[in-house]
Amino acid sequence: MSANAETVTQGVQGVHRVTLRFADDVEHRVEVAPGQSVLAAALAQGVPLISQCESGSCGTCVARVCDGDVRMNSKKQTALLSSEREEGYRLTCQAFAEADSVLELDYPSTLGEQTPEQSEAEITELEWLSSNVVRLALTLPEDQTFEFWPGQYARLRIPGTEDWRSYSMSSAPGEAPRVEFLIRILESGAMSDYLRERAAVGDHIEVEGPHGAFYLREPEGPLVMVAGGTGLAPMMAMLDTVRVQGSRAPKTLLSFGCATPDNLFHGDELELRCFWMSKLEVRTSVDQAPEGYAGRIGTPVDALQAADVAAPGTTAYLCGPPPMIEAARARLIELGLPADRIFAEQFTPSAE
Ligand code: FES
């Protein structure tokens, strides 16, 4: 901002200065007018904040208030968990500055400079993995660059409609132009209906991405991953990224759960990862099972223990439905993991 512009806004009633502090220590200060969201102000002033829905439903634009006063409408239903709100997290697309403030973003300033690309991909694999999960592999055009960080997601346009849905990539970035997704099939839903009734290998589907600030950070210690259902997808991308480090790959725990045994999937893929990665442990749980079931019954959160987070530098990644995320976050903090070492991506039905 020029000195002149600063002079003009200084002292304007209700305008507050919000400092946006990125994980790479880059700071940007923006002027936020009354009634203007922090996100709108940042984007208007050229600051690369991550966002997607801009309606409070995806959770992509989250930031943490570390000084000042930034508020959200407490009556509006959003993707933010109540525990996150209490810890100072805000969705910048729904947040308004009440005072000069400082917000921390848990991603580097370069992430927002990533430009999502749109292209038409071909369905090359389509496989039912369980009673309600489909593995969808696409091949992007050869001239298409699709660079993403493991954990990020893309939007897929449902063929024959104007509707888009968001899904995390389950393949590692190095596998492009092949890109894979794990998609939960709902009883009714536009994408679910398409995949169940009409989709076929050879179909074309529009892809746009990458998006999102949920991604694998440079490991500073062990990794703890907690995944519910198709929340396994970004964890697969992360596992396949760290496994190429061979013996330098960090000790990793994946606690994965589904509702019932017939919902479980990717057992063979996880077994293979355990074979390849000597420091990987997988705990698989089901919420409920018929009598005599030999596996673990409970949630993937129940399977977490204090020893899992005891090592310095442990970082946790959570992906699944909101109640699982909330329970996992609370449990990990109770076990002693600092809140700023926990990164989460929650699924909502519209996102699936
Ligand atoms: S951009 Fe989706 S919640 Fe803010």
From TrEMBL:
It holds the Pfam family NAD_binding_1. Residues 16-109 form the 2Fe-2S ferredoxin-type domain. Its cofactor is [2Fe-2S] cluster. GO terms for molecular function: 2 iron, 2 sulfur cluster binding; oxidoreductase activity. Residues 116-217 form the FAD-binding FR-type domain. PROSITE patterns: 2FE2S_FER_1, 2FE2S_FER_2, FAD_FR. This is Oxidoreductase FAD-binding domain protein. It comes from Alkalilimnicola ehrlichii (strain ATCC BAA-1101 / DSM 17681 / MLHE-1).
